[in-house]
Fold each of these.
Amino acid sequence: MSLQWYPGHMTKARRELAALMPSQDVVIEVLDARLPGSSANPLVTELRRQTPCIKVLTKSDLADPEATKAWLQYLRSEPNVMAFEATTDRPQDTRQRISELTRGLARHRGPDKRVRALIAGVPNVGKSTLINTLMHRTVAAVGNKPAVTKQQQAVILKDGTTLTDSPGLMWPKIEDERGAFRLAFAGSIPDTAIDYLTIAIFGAQLVLERYASLTVARYKLAATPASAESLLSEIGRRRGAIRPGGIVDLHKAAEIFVHEFRSGAIGRISLELPPAARKDPLV
Ligand SMILES: Nc1nc2c(ncn2[C@@H]2O[C@H](COP(=O)(O)OP(=O)(O)O)[C@@H](O)[C@H]2O)c(=O)[nH]1
Ligand SMILES: [Mg+2]
């Protein structure tokens, strides 16, 4: 895959994030529950240092609950890290978790000082949605394409916590090609920069590894598809993506598959599992 956008904004994001970090009491790192590893921005890890971090696994309604459980356990074992899953289906839970976790941090501050929280995350993980949930109203523009938040903004919650939206465009780490493909499949890389067919084949391979039965059910297949390409051809045939001469239009089928994955129509699918828990590091 050639990724045609290049994160030229990275230097700017680094500078802005580095400037903001010292004034923050906590970083709320927003991760896509379907890919909590690949959707983590390496700048956040690098620049937050000892600052406590609340990792919010958003869109958990779209992710495999077992995988999310494993990720939460893994993330909670990191130093200074708290983690929970969130979905727009349960906004009150999200408000409650954030309030409990930030209250814990406020204990270390003077009596009338507000907790200052920085919201960070790569495009399209649900940062604006989270801010709106916490504010009980629309203060940040939500989009289903990456990079809607262009301007930094700060809002104050009822309990006094100040939320600052992460600055600039925090592009994900693209050196990791498989990670970049997962992000593209999930929609965190602009669609203009990707080739649907390449992404769909990559995504179909991942989905078939662990969730083949979901594709059988969704597309009413007679048998488990033998390959990503055969899954896409079946989708094309069933959805009428046929070119003159009866040839399946694989690009059309690819678009259908990618969109249905992103919307959750195929089922609850996670694209990666946490690294296996490391054995006793002292041995
Ligand atoms: N299914 C589902 N979609 C969500 C959830 N949270 C956010 N989204 C969608 O994800 C897309 C990106 O959200 P947005 O808040 O704009 O992301 P941002 O770029 O990080 O600010 C939008 O289409 C949201 O509606 C969730 O919990 N479940
Ligand atoms: Mg946004």
Amino acid sequence: MKIFDKTDGIKLLTADLKSVSMAPYGYLSPDNTAYVADFHKSMPFYEPTPLVSLSALAKKLGVKGIYVKDESKRFASFGLGAFKGMGGIFAVGQVICRHIGLDPQKADFELLTSPEVREKTKDMVFITTTDGNHGRGVAWAAHQYGCRSYVYMPKGSAPSRVQAIKNVGAEECIVTELNYDDTVKLTERIARENGYFLVQDTAWEGYEEVPQLIVQGYTTVGQEALDGLESVGAAPTHVFLQAGVGSFAGSIMGYYAQKLKNRPEFIVVEPSEVACFFHSAEVDDGEPHGVLSAENTMMAGLNCGVPSIGVWPVIRDLASAYIACDDDVTVEGMNLYAHPTEGDEAIVSGESAAVGLGLVNRIMGRESLTEVRKALGLDENSVILLFSTEGMTDPENYRRVVK
Ligand SMILES: Cc1ncc(COP(=O)(O)O)c(C=O)c1O
């Protein structure tokens, strides 16, 4: 392991990768996730999101390619605009199957939304904690299946995010006086006391099945990106994955590690204030470690101080580097997406989505980050894959920081 001093808002840790057996990640293998993509495709409104090539920027920065999966377009007509709905719609559907005794690998969207099934599920209530996008996805999913949902948010959540969750069908969206991790504990207790179905995107001891379904649900996003790359004859050498509780990063890593012949470098990106994967890698005892922070980051979706134990082993074994970033890195990314290099397409990219591009722009463009660039092996042969995981999910802040 090597840690590079913080420079220009960026702190890097490179990990010593050990050779690992893929067995513990079997649930993310192409065979075990094929039915996930089939399920998503069974939704009449499903469409893959675009993979955008920022070729002018790649040329300017001296890399072979920069490809961006644009999740602002995900279920945008429903008011979602983030990848999270892919996990929510799949996991809620799977919970319904288990509850009423349908074969989870065979039930498609048409069956799950049929009048006979709705009659059996109309009293099911789903509950979750969110800092925005996950709750929006779960509320929307529950609504699609004709069920109710309650969504809880940590203190300080943006009113626009609360409204957006109500708009997609949540019965109630409640902002607590607690931080994210304590709000999760609260919803767990409410679910237990009321017989509600907890659909949380983070796992802890004794609560692992549903988070695993959510992680599986994200693999379709990963496959769509590979389809897009394949259509232009490209293969990624570096995949930057932003992490909150790590479910998204773990999903893509676990899936790609088993799907791709040449495994790319996986780089986990977190806000400096709550870099729990960075911290866990630094402690390096094989266990996940949470961080406590009084500071707030603008990257609301990544503002989680405790790694999900479900994906921790995947990330521990497969990530080659961890980067903690200050907020100004994502602001740089948001602006670069909004005002791209001439010839490139503009993308609306939110606070938790744009950090990867801000990073790449800084690492490739600043002399002061030469050592970081070298340590990551970024050069003219690099094909970089980024996931712009949300669009303008906090319009007020977006307008404030994107000039
Ligand atoms: C836009 C966005 N990107 C990335 C993430 C990180 O996902 P995870 O919490 O699974 O690590 C989130 C989580 O809320 C998010 O909303």
Amino acid sequence: MRLLFLGDIVGRSGRTAVCEALPKLISRHSLDFVIINGENSAGGFGITEAILNDLIDAGADCVTLGNHAFDQKDTLVYIDRHDRLIRPLNFPRGTPGKGATLLKAKNGADVLVINAMGRVFMTELDCPFRAIDNEITACSLKMGADVIFVDFHAEATSEKQALGLFLDGRVSGVVGTHTHTPTSDHRVLPSGTAYMSDAGMCGDYNSVLGMESDEPINRFLTKIPRGRYEPSSGQGTLSGFAVEIDDKTGLATHCAALRQGPHLEPAMRSFWRDAAQS
Ligand SMILES: [Fe+2]
């Protein structure tokens, strides 16, 4: 099956880019399942129910969150109405919503999506390694689910790499989110789990993490807030992770980074080809 993960949507630029491009990507590549991190989609902070519905209408099968999960207070109420919206699994017991969901893909596969948050340079939460381990013990690959995909919302690359190798061979894919900067380390790990340290963001890359640069630069220079962080309004670029998964084993066979839009440079191979032609 073909699974596409899109990195953190930041503001209107990211939403517009995703809602315009996703239906075409789904039909052009015959995608079976699409996951999007939506925690920054509402003005950079959280997600509203209307935006969630727009993303589902555009083709998202599941929307994941992170440290900004409840920045829009309504989310505390509506999250329990939606099977396709999940927040980090290792939030404190009693937090509204859930951290994992089992959904049907277009090809009929049962896909378990898990969202968890890292703890290095982030808020102290329950151990994400043990929380995910408990989840996939209860619903394991090929016993409870045909495909298992993990969005690990974390700051430190070391923690993401450790989780990828901890889960290698037991889940179909592990992708990092939160840094808003795509990494170039996407690969299939030795025992068959597709891995990418960070999927990057869907938004305006001429910015600081998707936000207009004036206020971040001011705060680095003076340490005195002068205004709010506002999402950058230039044209959005899509960044994500595409994974081909073997239907029999539920493990990955190939993976690739998706970069589509006006900002991110192409891969080295086309760079040299273009340079040779000029
Ligand atoms: Fe985040």
